[in-house]
Design brief:
The chain is α/β, with parallel strands linked by helices. It is about 45% helix and about 10% strand. Helix 4 packs across helix 5 and helix 10 crosses helix 14. Zinc ion binds next to helix 7.
Length: about 400
């Protein structure tokens, strides 16, 4: 196990009815809040009215930025930054899925920065400060509710890039599983694949002697697998939605499940290149990329993949070699993704091979990606070819 520091400053308020605490939680941050939300799902569910009531009851003036896109765009984030400045916003409140939360983080950081917020995504500047941020999560997937990361799409340049900072952790996050009852089946599936992928990025590691972390990762995966089909069969199954929501948070909250382990993140890098150009949902892209990444790299450490097959999927050894177990585990992953309705090839989105070279080159713009196996441009292209 490597040395590590773990600090997560986000206060989580979890459970049915917790939105009623918003006023009390927001009040200490000032008199004006920027409410950031997406394409309108929060209006259909009545959450919007409840949020406005809570803020008004706390004496907070609300300024609004709606229309955050899935795969949030830099141009929309710029509008939010301008509003923060012109309206003297003191708290940014994100109400929605990962895209809304990420946009709000970029707005909160960009509002206190003299240059373009895109600099943070291109590693040209480091975030020094951000406005306080609170969130109400409506889609279990990204972990953005309890981490300092954000992913921004620069649509004009066809680039999707992430930043992470201790300044952009939410101060508080409200997680009410009932708010996810209305998430459509395809987005539920995307969320399931995303949270599982976050665990994969941490679990497939070369760092030795991490038994607790490995078991924590395996537990999150098993819990997601146990609850995904329940939530799809009965979208208002509180237990299934609550367990998925907490799994999503645990899967990517500053690395709790993988402290002291080297992480990989190559598959995320590859997926971001796909959605930067084709604007496909992040989870759907991961469902295509991850099993192929697994096949490409598993020979680096077949014992970890064999352990995954045995402990997560319950595949019995029965005289199989590590290599055979590894492949069986990867097949089980692919089969599960397909069973819940996730896509398996780029062709499922009508995507061909035209942009593979560009995607592979962009993925390694800042150097080789991944740590389980370092991937150069040719490796990324080979994996993308497997995805066709
Ligand atoms: O925009 P609205 O109308 O709210 O509709 C959204 C959107 O169309 C809808 N939705 C959300 N909650 C709903 C709902 N519909 C009905 N009922 C509800 N309760 O779902 C659609 C997708 O929302 P989005 O926020 O885009 O999904 P997700 O949470 O999967 O976020 C994806 C974004 O997060 C980034 C991805 O790259 C992508 O841009 N990621 C962020 C990470 C992070 N901050 O740590 C890590 C991830 O790896 C990921 O890269
Ligand atoms: Zn992800």
């Amino acid at each position: 196990m490597n040395n590590f520091t773990f600090h997560n400053p986000t206060a989580v308020y979890f459970g049915e009815g917790t939105v009623a605490r918003l006023g009390e939680l927001a009040r200490p941050y000032g008199k004006t809040a920027l409410l950031v939300y997406g394409g309108g799902s929060i209006k259909k569910t009545g959450l919007y009215d409840q949020v406005l009531e809570q803020l008004a009851s706390a004496g907070i003036r609300t300024v609004e930025l709606s229309g955050i896109e899935p795969n949030p765009r830099l141009t929309t984030i710029h509008k939010g930054i301008a509003l923060c400045r012109s309206e003297q916003v003191e708290l940014v409140l994100a109400v929605g899925g990962g895209s809304v939360l990420d946009a709000a983080k970029a707005i909160a950081a960009g509002a206190l920065y003299d240059g373009d917020v895109w600099d943070f995504c291109m590693q040209k500047a480091v975030i020094q400060d951000a406005l306080p941020l609170g969130t109400i999560l409506t889609l279990a997937a990204t972990g953005s509710e309890m981490n300092g990361n954000a992913v921004v799409t620069n649509w004009e340049e066809k680039l999707k890039r992430a930043f992470g900072s201790k300044h952009t952790y939410p101060r508080f996050s409200i997680l009410d599983p009932t708010l996810t009852y209305t998430v459509p089946a395809d987005q539920t599936v995307n969320g399931v694949v995303d949270m599982m992928s976050h665990v994969f990025e941490q679990y497939f590691s070369l760092t030795p002697d991490t038994p607790l972390q490995e078991r924590m990762c395996e537990s999150v995966l098993q819990t997601v697998i146990e609850n995904a089909e329940k939530a799809l069969a009965a979208p208002d199954d509180y237990s299934a939605r609550a367990n998925l929501m907490w799994c999503g948070t645990m899967a990517l909250n500053g690395g709790l499940i993988s402290v002291g382990m080297q992480n990989d993140w190559a598959s995320h890098g590859i997926e971001h290149e796909i959605s930067a150009i084709y604007d496909i949902p992040h989870g759907a892209g991961l469902a295509i990329v991850f099993p192929n990444w697994m096949k490409y790299v598993c020979s680096e450490r077949t014992d970890r993949f064999a352990q995954y097959a045995e402990r997560v999927w319950g595949i019995e050894r029965a005289g199989r070699t590590d290599e055979e177990m590894a492949l069986a585990g990867i097949d089980a992953t692919r089969a599960f993704f397909s069973r819940i309705g996730a896509p398996s090839t780029l062709a499922d989105f009508g995507i061909g091979g035209e942009q593979l070279d560009r995607m592979a080159a962009e993925a390694v713009r800042f150097g080789p990606i991944g740590s389980f196996r370092k991937l150069e441009q040719a490796d990324v292209k080979a994996i993308l070819e497997m995805c066709l």
